[in-house]
Amino acid sequence: MEILKKNISKVDISHLLVILNLISLVIIVYGIVDFIVNFYLLGFVIFMSIGFSLIIIIPAIVFYVIKILNTRKLVVYIKYKNFSLYQLLGISFAVLLVFLYSKNYILFFLIGILVVGYIIGLFIRKIDYFTKNKLIITRILIFMIILSITIPYGFLARGTLPIDPSVQVWELHQIDNPGYVLPNGLDNADVNKDGFDDYIMNYEWDGYLRIAFHPGIANVHQRWKAINIGRIENAESSAFGDFDNDNNTDVVVAHGEEFGAQSGVLIIWAPNTSESEDPEKWIMSSDIPDTRNKGQFHFVRGYDINEDNFTDIVVGGRGTNPKAGLKWLEAPNDTLLSRNMSNWKVHDIDSAIESAHGFEFGDIDQDGDDDIVVCNSDWDTKASDQKIVWYENPGAGNLNQILEWNKMIIYQEPDFYTKEQIALHDFNNDSFPEVLISTVSQIYIFNNSDGGTTWDLVKISKPPSTIWRTRTLEIGDLNNDLKPDILGMLIHHDGYLPKHKAVVYWMNYSGPDFASGTWQTNVIKWGDGFIGLGEYNGEKWDQAQFIDMDLDGDLDIVANCEEFNSLGFVYLAVVWFENPLVSS
Questions:
Q1: DSSP of 71-91, one letter per residue?
Q2: Percent of the chain scored above 70 by pLDDT?
Q3: 105: domain range?
Q4: What 3-state DSSP class applies to 447?
Q5: What is the pTM of this model?
Q6: Fewer CB within 10 Å, N or C, the chain?
Q7: Residue 309 φ/ψ, nearest 5 degrees
């Protein structure tokens, strides 16, 4: 046996380690520089992972092939081996600093525990006792890996993370944050008939539908009572409405086809008012049959389209195969028949529109019925196809109402990014509502002077602090000067939204009218500085509504923040901003 051992050939992989270390170092430095320039955290993680793999995985493969399969002995000069070990430590510290800077505290905690375990293993091997008992070192490392997972996750439990109070100009109060991911919808109604509006929200990733009940003025600054009324895969949007005319407020839900789910539209039927806060009393229907797997539904609202005093449903979505389009779902004009989902009729308003997210209702042509306005920009809308359109409602009793509606183009240019929301308001009191939308650098106001035929574009420049992707846009009088103000909310770009950006802001004008007046921008909330992992993780404001929440005489703001989480730990979900302008 001794003779066999002496004859085993040796393979020196020192030069291989040198080459791998140098390549790894170049990749790591490039990843750090790229992060400093672009603040793209996912790219940084990818570069670090490649650098890590070059030092660990490739040598491990070489070790397996040469030593295990060919029974040859590997030789590595100790200085090269140590360089690799300490370079790994350097990579780890770089990753820790970036995670700490980007406020990914859970990732920082996870990697931090692993680094501590690695340091223990790195230095403990120099002690004679442990060099002879390598199994102990292995056990320590395994223990640290297990610890890094179980401590922050607590057997897969999620949690919430506090929001930085220093970024709040208006005080922010949390309505609901159960730790569920992707709060992706918002609507209001007085469900329990106590005189205060309650809110429905859907958590897309977890699928939960929740109603938060207004606690009364004395407790309005505290977290609200909320109940789960159902759970649906890929719940994209929800809204209130009395869909069976029993005087109770039901909930309609549009769910999509992401994550392997099946899309459709269904209703969660409300119990009597006295039982509305009991989650067991809410009853979920099946999907309306003709909505099943008809595309990626994204946005839903209840609306009496045919004016028969039964609330219909309007739903829009996106996708290419099939296109969800823009539809209205006609309610049976009978309370009992409404509960049978096969009695609901589906009518296409526009079966070919690329995206119908965030549509708005308004009587564009002043003919007595509400039309629909939408911007079709989305992930899979070609830049050349981006446009703002309005659909003329044929009117109640008109047989054409169940056919596709006439579509008129307000504007067509590749000025948008994705899912910019429309707002309507009659700025000049001529009875014709104007149409508003935001680009990265400007607010566009389309002046409607003749009922939807001619649209004069007025562009309002945004200051540097708000030059960014603005998704949410709402109109209301926030300072009680009897003039309409504009509320804007930003969303992240590939996870990044800088701290110096006014992520929630409002604009008011002085002067005779909106077109010639001087616009001023006011900050409600600054960016938190969080940098998420890619295009679906970051500070992203979704929906907003105005209401005098605390009854102090000014309009406050209710909003949901959709993707503001770190590995399942959620910073913000549904909140309200307390207006200080009048009360102070």
A1: --EEE--HHHHHHHHHHHHHH
A2: 88
A3: 2-153
A4: strand
A5: 0.89
A6: N
A7: 70, 15
